[in-house]
């Protein structure tokens, strides 16, 4: 059945603006056209940044309680329309309807956490008398918003990753201009709808849709933009870092996440957690499990259990309540994954299950004996493929885990506290999940990586710290009055 094509408008400084120039948004499952979205040009992006700057400059004092109220009202609106949000995420992207509902729930939490953290943007008193000659000085510092934030967001979490930039920006009193992924702009526009309902002052949020190549440089290089928050690929991130110049930059650039399974682990728990971590969101997940290192004594049993559990996953209609795996974001990406897997197999990798593509669908795939210098072992696959290796001990597992140019999350399954702490200390990553797969995150925690996985940290409180600066205040007291 042909669905009615939505004619969307973009959110321009508090107003919904349509254009004759549009681009199409398709459902990746069947390539059906679902929406026409305005295609902004460079001039419109420049004006959006200028409007944001004007709004920020005009709002000299924005009380914390007002920011909190706006954020909570936006979350209330999302809660009231959560099924609409979920169906939008699922229709424009890769997630199943159940995965989409989980993302909506998380996005609501992200906005509510932002409201809570707004009340905790505190400073500290400073003991100036620690310095000889400053005995008659007292003072403190407080944090102030920096201005306009530029946000560039990806397709794989089209609502929550936008919320992770918008929520902290508003909580800290900044204006923000969002450029969402062109394949999944509808969820970001729905978030803007919530903030419009909530009474956000005009200009403090714009969601500008269109080509990244057309709009990205204008957004990143505009002198009014004081910080760029980017989530996406490493190549684009490196380009943005060069373009941005002397301004704050926060980047989450993906990973090739390892999980270590020791022979003292609960095997069934490790299998279940790693299957979920590898294949949720069709593997299009920056902290998804890509490499698993298993101690030799339990390797064969682990692989057998992992393959058996993978075979139980239901691949099909993403709107189906029982579906586990939907399509990838488009057929081009599914074809790329297919090519990487075939390349590894040609070089000697063994296909345990999967390796099958149907249009944009790529079936969950398990590989063993993958050469460690193969592209699929070194780079981020961003698809439903996992590699399983045997290792002799914890030291070998950690060494191999670190042997890539990424370091976002890692996991370890063990009942030995010393092994757990060894990995905590030695794994070169931004987060270590003990008795969980790498695919574990709550929205309140600091989130980010090292090496090629990015710069800085997200998570609401961490983002607020990045989006504010400390200002020191010192009073020199008149000695005659002391």
UniProtKB/TrEMBL annotation:
CDD domains: ALDH_y4uC. InterPro entries: Ald_DH/histidinol_DH (IPR016161), Ald_DH_C (IPR016163), Ald_DH_N (IPR016162), Aldehyde_DH_dom (IPR015590), ALDH-related_metabolic_enz (IPR051020). The keyword Oxidoreductase applies. Residues 16-473 form the Aldehyde dehydrogenase domain. It comes from the Bacteria. Keywords: Oxidoreductase. The keyword Oxidoreductase applies. Belongs to the aldehyde dehydrogenase family. This is Aldehyde dehydrogenase family protein. It comes from Evansella alkalicola.
